Amino acid sequence: AKGAGKSQWRRYESDLHSAMVQRLELRTALDHAVNEGHFLLHYQPIVDLHTDEAVAFEALVRWHHPQRGTIPPDQFIEVAEESGLIVQIGRWVLEQALHTVSQWQRILPPGRLHYISVNVSVRQFRTPGFIDEVRGLLDTYGVDPRMLMLEITETLLMRDDEQTWQDLQKLRDLGVRIAIDDFGTGYSSLGYLRQRPIDVLKIDKTFIDDMVDSPQQHALVQSIVGLARTLNLKVVAEGIESPEHRDTLMRMGCPLGQGYLFSRPVSAAEAFAWLNSHARL
Ligand code: C2E
Ligand code: CA
Ligand code: CA
Ligand code: CA
């Protein structure tokens, strides 16, 4: 038994070692990708549940690896956060999304696209000069600030420091709108939402998943929708995969959603084709 324990420990040690090596390799490769600009954006429609019309898009980053192909963000965002590379990646994402919107805007009828949603990591948000950068990019690309929605997470609000609220207010003063992503998965208190510079709550996919079968889950989603209404916030449900999901959310009074039922994230060209030709998905 002693021998087995020892070899188990060795295996554990070598697993740990290879995990560290893998992480380091990932970091090095990611660093290279940042320098070479090996990223691309996909866009997922945000749909008016009553009309099935795509009214907005969320920009989602992918790593375009020359050998390994397209790598989803779940496989590199964490390392990007830890290493600080997320700041450069996030800057590129914002610029690319605004560049794309500025091109779309020239062709689309006014009001066709309501906004573009861009994810902002905590580290990126807290980087000095972030607000100036947002202002500068909106200016450079001639995009109306009201066309930009920034998605932040509850992690950013957890400290509840005045600086964060002031920065959010500054963005709001520019005309930029703020969504809380993955709402309900963090541990922040609800009180902070009152009178705060927030426009949208995005209900996390994990709540939508079991909503149809589980009465508790159903009640939870219903209460988030109710909370949003009480606080005069918009609500967007994510991870809508079935007509049952959509119908349930509509009955609850949730006006907007995104999910595979409507579309997976697609290329900018495909997203534009949706906006331009078919009004409906
Ligand atoms: P998120 O912001 O919660 O984005 C939604 C994720 O759910 C996307 O995954 C999307 O493809 C996926 N999704 C949408 N509808 C469905 C559905 O019906 N079913 C299922 N199973 N999944 C659905 P994706 O693109 O892999 O992104 C994962 C996460 O990576 C994002 O979660 C976000 O946290 C992060 N991320 C993506 N792009 C960026 C970025 O530019 N900056 C930062 N900081 N984070 C990003
Ligand atoms: Ca998001
Ligand atoms: Ca989300
Ligand atoms: Ca999520």
From TrEMBL:
<feature type="domain" description="EAL">
    <location>
        <begin position="23"/>
        <end position="279"/>
    </location>
</feature>
<protein>
    <submittedName>
        <fullName>Uncharacterized protein</fullName>
    </submittedName>
</protein>
